Input
Amino acid sequence: MSSVQDLFQPIAFQHGPQWKNRFMLAPLTNQQSHPNGLLSDEEFRWLTMRAQGGFGLTMTCAAHVDARGQGFPGQLGIFADDHIPGLARLAAEIRRQGSVSSVQLHHAGNRSPKDLVGQPLCPSDDPETGARAMTGDEVEGLVESFAAAAVRAQTAGFDGVEIHGAHGYVIAQFLSPELNRRDDRWGGGVENRARLLFEIIDAIRGRTRADFQLGLRLSPERFGLKLAEIREVAQEVLRQGRIDYLDMSLWDVAKEPVEEAFKGRTLASYFAELDRGQVRLGAAGKIMTPAEAAGLLSGGYDFAVIGRAAILHHDFPERARKDAGFEPVARPVSPAHLEAEGLSPSFVEYMRNWPGFVAAA
Output
């Protein structure tokens, strides 16, 4: 069994710097950036406080790689060279605070609001959202957008990037047999539906330095995804060994799968048992205490991805280091508490979408 102290063992990767501990800041939507995607002072403060608070890896929110792939207002952008100076300022300060830095690369696909992007794009025509199918040239352009964004992150001084393949955004839409009804090389069986993902991995690896760290986030449920298929895709990604870590977003690391055929054990266990070679494995999902993070390591994972607890306490890792029995502040919390923890008023307002998280004003 792993102890809380095991969370403070460094972790090394095939590429890029080691992390000083097993805590990764989850990529968290916060709506704090400027309308054109430029980094704001509020976003800078939020992230650098987490680096200062002891996270081994400090990751940005989902940053869109194409203006047409924006997923929410106030989203950080990495689709233009104009974004590089702000990102460079951020990367330098994260490093100064002793944390490894990463940008999460994202395209929302059919989840892009029409009032932000105009015509949303999707693997296939989607009457429910009004998104239209991408042409073959547009799919190839999508691969290029991810690769170019990774190069921008590298130019800005980030240690790496994470590909967002989870939560029903564009890569997950290609993986979904419900949303992807294409009859070209990106549609059909799971191997074809996963082709976009592998092309993006290869393109980023081909365009970045040998010491650039590459992660991937997957989720195995909701949005038309099938657990068996995502497990198959994850195993192939691990077998190829071209990424440095796989970040599984599980909603709750203790839950059972929703699919009846897979019940009887935790969702997390289905990925812990995969042959991962040199690739590291982490998970996110309601990890609120140091003991729960240590329990994930006991379950075969290499690191813990912290979201809610990192919002409540910018220094969650440091608190865990000092007190293995640390418990986050009880919810709902006051807006003043969140603002003191580095959340801007717009971020606090966004957090009101999470039931029972923010106290009424």
